[in-house]
Amino acid sequence: MSMRRTTIKDVAEAARVGVATVSRVLSGGSASPETRERVLTVAAQLDYRPSALGRNLRQQRSGGIGLLLPDITDTFYGRLADGVLACARSAGEPVILGTTGDDEEREAELIGMLVEQGVDRVIAVPSGDGEIWAPTLRAGLTMVFAHRSSGGRDEVPAVLADDRAGVRTAIDYLTGLGHRRIAYLGGPGQSQRLTAFRQALGPLVDEELIVLARGTRDSAYAAAAGLFQHRPDLTAVLAGGNLLGEAAVLAARELDVRVPRDMSLVMFDDVPWAELCSPPLTVIAQPARDIGYRAAELVLRAGGRRPRGVLLPTELIVRGSCGPRGSSRSPR
Amino acid sequence: MSMRRTTIKDVAEAARVGVATVSRVLSGGSASPETRERVLTVAAQLDYRPSALGRNLRQQRSGGIGLLLPDITDTFYGRLADGVLACARSAGEPVILGTTGDDEEREAELIGMLVEQGVDRVIAVPSGDGEIWAPTLRAGLTMVFAHRSSGGRDEVPAVLADDRAGVRTAIDYLTGLGHRRIAYLGGPGQSQRLTAFRQALGPLVDEELIVLARGTRDSAYAAAAGLFQHRPDLTAVLAGGNLLGEAAVLAARELDVRVPRDMSLVMFDDVPWAELCSPPLTVIAQPARDIGYRAAELVLRAGGRRPRGVLLPTELIVRGSCGPRGSSRSPR
DNA sequence: CATGCTCATGGAAACGATTCCATCATGTTT
DNA sequence: AAACATGATGGAATCGTTTCCATGAGCATG
């Protein structure tokens, strides 16, 4: 019924050469022009496609790139994945996707699965402080972090958006509008942004206005609603991600906080619906797709040498969700 | 520096048995209780993880599931992918992701890449009319279609949302509000929805009110804007996907068409931002994640027998984007 | 007691590619 | 002309696993 795939041996026999020669011709080794020609012709005729299985076993590594994301449902990571896929496709490499849910344990599991599969190049948005990665690195994996860097020093190159600058311009913008009580709604694993926030705000920082949520919608909503209820005196919010921004808009509407009259809102990450909101959201755009693309480039071209990380620019896109400081809301 | 991975041979030697026995023990074959015990202990001690590479070559297939989506950036497909990943993870199977951009050629390329990798189980949202799939099927792949089915008869099981019922309830809802001139904004590869639209509308159908866009944002916007400009007499629109819905909202705002006063809008697919819109969008919710999960179940448990497809329910979620038929807009 | 059956077991053969190494032909240098 | 360098070529080993098959032990049945 189903005939056997054509193997390198078939090609060798049909072209009356040895298998070694076929392999050399196909992988760019040296061969005389005439045999090269003959082998190529025969291979084309037989529609020969080398089996990745055999090759992988021999060279002890499956091609392919592992991609570990917190949540593929989040459009930010969707765009990031899109960038990785684009680059991988142009290199002909398959991409194995796994989602961690920002859980270190699941992340470790996934890494185990990847090495089991022989995947030796991984792009990850690291969940924890990156201690899990130490053994992985020692095992000889080529790693690149995207969007977040591992907690401590950087043994692993990272492709990041310039959070520091993004936060700074956003805060400058808000303080320029007269805001003083500015809150920060943060998600998991973004210590960078948080410290940038603290730095940018300087003496104005109010620790009670800093709220951290877990990666879920519910958690984000709870954080936003809690913040708005407890601190009616705040006049501006910086949401550290599109999920947080969504939660902020929702909570504001629910609690009758009008944007931007009662409260200004800046959201990290420009998503399509930011423009559809009313008012349209002022955002800090991040080049999510580029982050993925660059990370893939790095992990693919890592010829033994460990490349330096990359910092990509962010952009403040002013729409309609920020206004001058109004009278602060009265407690309900 | 980097020590060799521990192989089955190491385990065999350490446990003083043959490699065959180790393999049997680890894959659930028969063995005497004592040897089983010994092998398991030793394997655990040496932290032995069987290499997928060797296994794959031997059994001529890499485990793993191929997942082919039009666009991972679209949250619908993001949710679908999430479902697939969830199911695959519980089965310990890796998922190889590829995006087709609704392009048959790219789709064919990706399939080629997958078979080269030895992947023999694929979940796909088919782009074209499915002719590409014939040779693939003959090659012995296990295929499941998700979200769309192949054009003709169904040789391939498909997991679908009940588009027919979804369209019908939406149209009933709109006609119930008094609407007669109802437009359809469609995307690629959804002939199902379109025919359902025609059927549900019956004699009211106006072919000029049916506009099809390609899969991009620009194309969707152009389609929506063109429709609104040319036909100011329409009073309701059914958008056949979240991209189309987004375009409709944008175009309506741009052209000063007020929703729902001037025009009612129902969108296929419930996305988080539908609630953030003003007015909040009335949508036909589809169980995207379930579609993915079920598709993965099907493709995993396909024990030779070809399972029947699955039809999952949709739900009309009424929010604020539909109203009774008002006076139709005057041409500009 | 002999025969046959079941079961655990290990050696060895696949699987399909890459790559080391030996061989042989050809051309170049002394 | 002999020695040597160069380059093309094919045989064979290798990667790590599964699985076929033969072997031998233990046990029951005739």
UniProtKB/TrEMBL annotation, chains A, B:
Transmembrane segments: none annotated. Gene3D superfamilies: 3.40.50.2300, lambda repressor-like DNA-binding domains. Residues 6-59 form the HTH lacI-type domain. Pfam families: LacI (PF00356), Peripla_BP_3 (PF13377). One of its GO terms (molecular function) is transcription cis-regulatory region binding. Coiled coil: none annotated. Keywords: DNA-binding, Transcription, Transcription regulation. PANTHER family: HTH-TYPE TRANSCRIPTIONAL REGULATOR GALS, LACI-RELATED TRANSCRIPTIONAL REPRESSOR. This is LacI family transcriptional regulator. The lineage of its organism: Bacteria, Bacillati, Actinomycetota, Actinomycetes, Streptosporangiales.
